[in-house]
Amino acid sequence: MWHVVIGTFCARSHVVDSAVGALVVRGLSFTVDAKLFHLFQSTSLINQMAPKVPTVRLNNGVEMPVLGLGTYMATEEEGIAAVKMAIDEGYRHIDTAYFYQNENQVGQAVRAKIAEGVIKREDVFIVTKVWNTFHAPEHVEQAFQKSLDNLGLDYIDLYLVHWPTGWKFSGWSESDFLPMDTEGKTINSDVDYLDTWKAMEKLMKTGKVRSIGVSNFNSEQLTRLLANCNIKPVTNQVECNPGINQRKLIDFCRKHDIVITAYSPLGRPNLTDPVVGTADIPKHALDDPRVLAIGKKYGKSPGQVVLRYLIELGTIPIPKSSRLERIRQNIDIFDFKLTADEIKVMDEFNTGGRTVPFNFSSEHKYFPFHLEY
């Protein structure tokens, strides 16, 4: 069930009731003089307001915006600028990770917008993740605190286990993130992700994190986790786009009240990734004439059609962009819906091909992609 967040005063959207002369700003109601009210209606500020993003209620009662900004590979000034632009355009969900090495930039941008009065801390939903080399229980709390310090915030809204695969711990620097042997395979640890999860559950007692979840877990791993946990994961963040629409995993997670967050929702059309490379990447849907035709019907770009499709599937897409035009387009998807026939067209792109195959860790006993879902 979707719950629309109303009364968020930010770029291009507002909530007004002209009959009673009421204005809702950031969830607060104000009654104003009729002349002042109509003057406010006519100002250019109203025209600069941003689309409202609905939220979904997670299994712990927390509300999570159904669209966010992905930040992988958005570093340094690019990362700061992208997050600032996104917040100005109405984004209230920002996804990062310790591995991305941009938590500092994300935090700096968020704190700047809080200082400007554009948002309050409680208005924005911040997600980060514990990396594979930090799976040992004694490292989980340290990794979390490092992320919290990087962000410079009082708490994190959602903390995820980035992958079920634990790797050898060598240290906290970037050079230690990808322990590889001479054959280019990861040097694995024998840490069970159940032990990692128990350490995640302990973090909830600190009050510094509001929700915990997982990423890149398959259905068998989730089943095992659900049978052994005290706190159920609220989300499973996985690659999800027309090329791998994850319908079976979505259905599985829905039955267990777990939301799917969709990374690489556009199929990484401009991928230049030093980690996963560019080989064997499936053709995305963005240039297909059928998608172009659907977009033309609604006055939307192919990317907006794809993101709307993922919303219709019940996922939470987190598209990454550093361009203002794309950031604006990606959030402007809540004023139209695809028909059943159009969803069938989008379903036809599904091949199961991944843009993030993670093959260099395929020999790990917890490698998640040996199963279909």
Automatic annotation (TrEMBL):
Residue ranges of every copy of the NADP-dependent oxidoreductase domain listed in the record: 67-350
SUPFAM superfamilies linked: NAD(P)-linked oxidoreductase
GO MF assignments: oxidoreductase activity
Pfam families for the chain: Aldo_ket_red (PF00248)
Protein name: NADP-dependent oxidoreductase domain-containing protein
Source organism: Anopheles atroparvus (European mosquito)
Classification lineage: Eukaryota, Metazoa, Ecdysozoa, Arthropoda, Hexapoda
